Structure formats: structure tokens, C-alpha cells
Amino acid sequence: MSILVVGSVAYDTIRTPTGEVQDALGGSATYFSAAASFFAPVKIIAAIGDDFSREQLSFLGERGTDLDGLHMMPGKTFRWTGVYNENMNERQTVCTELNVFERFQPHLSEGETHTPLLFLANIDPDLQNRILDQVQGARLIMSNTIHLWIEKKRETFLSTLDRVTVLMINDSEARALTGEYNLLKAGRRILLFGPKAVLITKGDNGVLMVMKDSVFTLPAYPKEEVCDPTGAGDSFAGGFMGYAAQASALNEMTYRTAAVYGSIMASFTIEAFGVERLRDLTRQEIEKRYREFVEITRFQGG
Amino acid sequence: MSILVVGSVAYDTIRTPTGEVQDALGGSATYFSAAASFFAPVKIIAAIGDDFSREQLSFLGERGTDLDGLHMMPGKTFRWTGVYNENMNERQTVCTELNVFERFQPHLSEGETHTPLLFLANIDPDLQNRILDQVQGARLIMSNTIHLWIEKKRETFLSTLDRVTVLMINDSEARALTGEYNLLKAGRRILLFGPKAVLITKGDNGVLMVMKDSVFTLPAYPKEEVCDPTGAGDSFAGGFMGYAAQASALNEMTYRTAAVYGSIMASFTIEAFGVERLRDLTRQEIEKRYREFVEITRFQGG
Lengths: 302, 302
Hints:
- The structure is a homodimer.
- The first copy, chain A, is α/β, with parallel strands linked by helices.
- Chain A has twelve helices and 13 strands.
- In chain A, helix 4 links the parallel strand 8 and strand 9.
- The first copy, chain A, is globular, with a radius of gyration of 18 Å.
- The interface between A and B is large, with 41 and 41 residues.
């Protein structure tokens, strides 16, 4: 099955303790597709400015990603500038220029509205709703958000939740959304708004997935060296949706295994700046790390 | 096999957002024994003051714990007062009165020196060394420490490390000891001082065990309600050593499974103030939660 992703394609300027890049290819849709394209066909819906070189995405095209949904609009491409702290567990957004993204109002084609899998990246919840209005009969819809929308468009964001299957949200966002520090409580609280599953990502502390009748908890793949955490969440989403797209059934065990693939994809992304590591990655490396992950989490009966 | 534990028996005064207790039974050796005694015979070596009522430990005696190593000394029992913050992820020590513990210089009996398993709780590293001087042929020695010793007796503490099999240390202590924020790096750095394994506990984010040629990572058992986190680490150690004491071999897989039992025991301890939950707990409840833990961590191939 193929996956439709609506998100950003961006130029990122990033400084971490290990170095700095300027105007590197980034954006939620880019990371997502770079990760998901190892597993399934992906179609990107995003806006780019007239300063954007489509060639930068040719590595995605080579993996079967459909780039026809890239709307080139007059003006500049979305730009984000961020600086990470010494331990790379916090970052500061120095500058966000929405540029063409601000006027982006995608209309899905007939084929796109019938997509079996949809990922709504951390875009404006009003835009998420407008996409959801157009989609029919999707088997798995995952969405994501950021603090900005929780603060500025809380009600609108909450209104999207009974229209999605899985909400992916990080720990601090889950706490901000619910006022609950305990993540199991926060997850259960979010479930009341309608999603079937709440996937709480905790950076290098792994993932907690809360569903109505079950809980799943997973450590992160331990990494000694981190180069750039940017895009880890969207890469996680790409691994998750990618695995789900080619699974024989969409059930809880599929979501669990998908979360492992999500962790694996995030662990690759953070090894280099931007999407660099995902450019030359191979499915063989992914499967090798999956087996390694199974090994490092194994215990008696587990 | 039986386990010898050298640590504290204390009266704790604890305030958490859920309530408060005064002069509740506590201390590292108490929590450790309360957890380990479900699995194996334990002998406690500790000092108590003449204000201590041995009856408080009778529940341990009923589980086969040997209390003959409780040295009653003139003066008051060790007392600790602590206050937890709203989220119970940080605590402030309001007051520590070492009392009789300050003069505690245990001499092990002939039988005690040949203990197959030894747990050195977070006592003064000078005292840890003096115990290690007396012990011969132990098959598994685990130790623990606190920030105080890392700050005040760093070199002495480091000198204990090539005499122990497993160092159990929490994340912030591992970072303080090594200057490394990354816990995998911190664990590898600590390994250089001699222990076979470094078990880094991360509270509700689980455990990372680093050995020379392998890494093991485990999430925590997710809990919605926490009453009092006091003693979670020592209960973890008790579950770990208890499981190891009755395992057929002391190898890496045993340590991994032992870490799961450690997590399970900690998850019970935090359900009530002090050691209360461990008083009426049953082995059946422990095994039930173990199976539940297997279930909530299961994924394809894992």
C-alpha cells in the first residue's frame, strides 16, 4: 500500500556541538519520505519556493517516491534555523520563516483522497482538518504536532484527534497537552479525544504506546554518538508508516513492530546532519540494526 | 545461594504529593532484603540504635531473612528526611542523621566472608572496601553509590570498582562520575575501572546495562500512580540479586532477566510509602507482573 504525507519541505540551518550546516535539505515530509521510502511507495504533498532545487529530492524519486505533489509557488522555501544545547537533549528555534508554506492550501486529487495510509506532519491543525475533510476510507492515519499548535490552536488540534488512528507526540508535548506529567496518564487522557493509539516518543528513552486495552513500551536504540537530532521524530513516523504499509494486517502487533522500525530509522537519521544518513542507507543496514535491536532487548521469556 | 547485604536500616520521614510518613521503616538494606527475600535467603549486616524495634523487621524474618547481623549500638538509628517534588522525579534531602551508622565497622564472621553473593549498598566507599577486604570467593558482588561519595570520596569509590562484578548507579550519578552525558559512553567509561557490568538505572525510563561486548536496554514497567519513589533503587537491586541467587548460572542472560525482576520489584515498592507494599506482596503477584512485563514489551522477533 502507498502512503500520502502532507508536511514541509524545508531548508534548515542547524548548529549542534558537532558542527553546523546551512540551508540543508530538511522538513517533516522530507524526513518522513526518506525513511518510509525504504518500505513502501510514498507520495509527498508539500509546498516549495522558486528557490528550491528539485534535484535535491532525486534520491527519493529513485526509491519510488512520487514528487508530483510538490507545489512550486512563487517565493522562498520554508526555512528553519535551530541550535542544540551541549547534550543535544534541548534545542532552541532561532528562526522560522514559513514563506510559501504560509499560503499552502493543498487540494488532493481523486487518487490522493483514497490513499490507504496518510501521515499528517506537524502542520497547522486547521490544515490537518482540511486534509482530513478530503480523505475517504483511509486504513491508517497518523498525525503529529508541535508545542506551537498546542498553545495557539488547542481546540482545533483536539478536534483532529477523533479523525486520526494514531497520534504521535513527544513527551513534553503530551504533558503540555494534558497537564499530566505521568506519560501513561497523559496517553490515556489523549485517547479520550478519539485516536486508537497514542505513541509518545521520549527521545533517547524510547517510546510508550497507549491503546484502550493495552500498553506497549520500548527503549530507544542506544547510540554513543549523535550528530544531529533534527528529523528524528519524522523519521520515526516514516519507519512506522512504512512498515505498516507493507504489513499483512493493521493490528496492535503491527503497530508495535512498526514502532521498532520507527526507532531504527530515527537512530540512523541522528548519525549525520539533515537527511544525509538516509540518502545512502540500505534496507540491509535497516534489517541488520533491527536484528541487533532484538538482541539488545532480549531477556528470558521476553 | 544466599545473599549478604551491607547497608542501612533507617527511620525515614518522607513527604510526597500523595502524603507523608514519619519515622517509617526504611534504609537500603531493608528495601534490598524486602525485595530479595522473595527469591533467596538474605543476611542483613547493619547497625541499629537502641531506639529500634526489631519487630519491625519480623516480616523479613518470616521470609527466611537472617537478622543476626543487625548490630544494636547505643544511640539513635539512622534517620533520613526527604521531600519529593510535584512530579516525583526529583527529591530534596532535608536531613540526614547518620547516628549509630557513623560508627559502624562490621567484622564479618567466617561464614559471612564466604558469601556467594554480596550487595554493598550506597555506604561510604571506605566501608565498602573494608567489607571487600574480608570477602573471599564471592561469585557475584554488586555495589551502589550516591552523589555524596562521588563528590567527596571519588578516588576511594573508583578503587572499589575493580573489586565488584556489577555497579548499579543511576543516570545522574553515572554522568557525575564520568562527565559524560551520553549514558552508553558513561557506562563504557565506568567499565574501564573494572566491573564486569554497569547497570544504569533511569527511573521511569528503565535501565541500560553495559558490558564489555554487549549492551542491554530495558524500559521500566509503566505505572500510572506512584505513591513514594523511596527505595526503588534498592528494591531493584534486591530483585536483581534475588533472581541471580537462584539462577542456574551467572551469565549475561541471567543478569538481563535479573534486571527485569529488579524493575518489577521497584514497580511494587513505589506503590506505597516505605516498604509497605513489600510486606504483603506475594511471589504470585511478582510472577504475574513479570508475565505482564513480557507482554507489554513484546514485538515481532523480540
